[in-house]
Amino acid sequence: MLSSITQRLKGRSMAQIVQLVGHNIAYHAREMTPQARRRNRQFRAFDAQWGTDTFGMRELHTLSVDPDLAVHARRYQASNGGNMPTWFADLNVDFARTAFIDFGCGKGRAVLEAARFPFARVIGVEFAPELVEIAERNRAIMMARGALAAPVEFVCMDAGRYEPPTDLDLVCFFYDPFGDAVMAPVADRLTALDQPVSIIYLEPNCIGQFRRSGRWTEGVSVDNLVLRNPAALAR
What we know:
Layout: H1 2-9, H2 14-31, H3 34-50, H4 67-70, H5 84-90, E1 98-103, H6 109-114, E2 121-126, H7 129-144, E3 152-156, E4 169-175, H8 180-191, E5 197-202, H9 208-211, E6 217-221, E7 224-228, H10 230-234
Parallel strand pairs: 1-2, 1-4, 2-3, 4-5
Antiparallel strand pairs: 5-7, 6-7
């Protein structure tokens, strides 16, 4: 237990430790609610249906990741794609000309759920090689069962360095994957793009990185924050 705690705190400043403690308290408080328990039952049902491994949590200290990046990352926790039909309808997604990107995709749960829609491309970006390996196994399982309607790819790299495709509209998904230090370059890169970009942001703790540009229009879909750039609004 002590070595586990030491690993989690290694390399963090006092301010980062305080922020981590606060984040963990808030997380565990949410997980005790009836809503969270119902959500987790739904998450397990997905794996039971497809034979995948997307639910189980992974703490960062159990992964082979760059410690300088791990300081800014969150634990892996699966997201629920049950609201995707409403999100995509609210954003008026033209699937044939759009790529879906999950930043911090972990085991690939949101990627696999998005790939059940006919996107031109579905991409998961993840910096932990162990999680990418699991995500690729999950993809193979669902492909073998004919469950995917879009091509799926996983990219193992720092999200802050990832260059999104520029030849398609983008729908970008964030489930509080990392802190401001990583979100800043991601937000800057997305803000600079000329093509239509829409963002679905669950637990938007780093929303300030997008707001500072003044270019994003905010909205809500199923109680979740959505952002659209001028090109997406004009479509």
